[in-house]
Design a protein that fits this description.
Helices cover about 55% and strands about 10% of the residues. The chain is an alpha+beta fold. Strands 2-1-3-4 form a four-stranded antiparallel sheet, with no helix packed on it.
């Protein structure tokens, strides 16, 4: 090599670069690795240190697409049209709770009106009891009281059914999104 001219040395270097690229495997594949060490410090590099390879880390490809590796998956995969609809309809648990509260709130408002009417009917029944001239009206008022009580009970069952359905949707949404269950409230002291 001592007698080689600069021209020949340059050609040899160009040939070597063409045959043996001076890039490492990660750079040639266009991947960048992202990992977090035991101190919580985020690192980026063209290779992941062996001690972090079994831990959760991300790989960013040449297009910028980030893929999680060794990510713990406790969620169940989307299995049904219902799951897909749930994920497409709601962005978070609060949205599900808002819809649930609006639906049950409408029924609660109807029950409030019915309870007010029921109290008026009960008051009227007390006024009519013992009056022999008001037997027909008393029978009608008593019948209406039974109807309002049945209507309120029916709405309460519907409210409980709606709450149960939405609670099941919230649990499934949390499973699909991998969200933790909320902490149970502390008992009163």
């Amino acid at each position: 090599m001592r007698g080689m001219s600069m021209k020949h040395l340059g050609l040899l270097a160009a040939l070597a670069l063409a045959v043996f690229p001076v890039t490492d495997a990660a750079a040639s594949s266009g991947k960048i690795y992202r990992w977090v060490d035991e101190n919580g410090v985020v690192h980026f590099g063209d290779a992941i240190p062996p001690q972090y390879s079994k831990e959760r880390h991300d790989v960013v490809d040449e297009r910028g697409v980030r893929t999680a590796v060794n990510e713990e998956r406790v969620t169940e995969p989307v299995q049904s049209d219902r799951d897909r609809a749930l994920l497409a309809t709601y962005g978070n648990v609060a949205e599900i709770e808002d819809v649930r509260d609006r639906r049950t709130g409408y029924l609660d408002a109807q029950n409030d009106v019915a309870r007010d009417r029921l109290e008026g009917l009960k008051t009227r029944r007390q006024e009519l009891e013992g009056n022999p001239n008001a037997m027909n009206e008393l029978a009608t008022v008593t019948q209406r009281i039974g109807e309002y009580e049945a209507e309120i009970a029916r709405r309460n069952q519907e409210i409980e059914r709606i709450r149960g359905d939405f609670d099941a949707d919230i649990r499934r949404f949390r499973e699909l999104k991998g969200l933790p269950e909320p902490a149970a409230p502390a008992p009163p002291q």
